Amino acid sequence: MNNKRNTEAIVNIAKKKSDEVRNKVEKTIQRLILEGVIVNFNVVKNEAGVSKSWLYSNEDIRRRIEEIRDKQNVSPKRSKGASRERSEASKDNIITALKERIKELDSENKKLRKESEILYGKIYNKL
Asked: Are the beta carbons of 80 and 43 closer than 8 angstroms?
């Protein structure tokens, strides 16, 4: 009887550990999605600290990663670092374009103010 109790305890501990790892992987996947990081098996493996074989052997986790990966419609070779670099480059390009647009609008604004002054002057002279 005593051996059975010890076995049950070991099984319960293993089950608890498995559940903790599963929760950790789920939270990692959610965090990656929120951060806008590309989700694939390698990224999840590295971020969650589990083996790739563990990810593949758990069908529901495997399907979830595959579905997310397919929805992102991105090649699996792109990594978190490349995504951030592209994101920073995109931000820099947008900032540059916006600064140029501001200069154009300032120039147009000055031109319109001068035209407005000229027209006000002509109206004043007619009075």
From this structure: yes
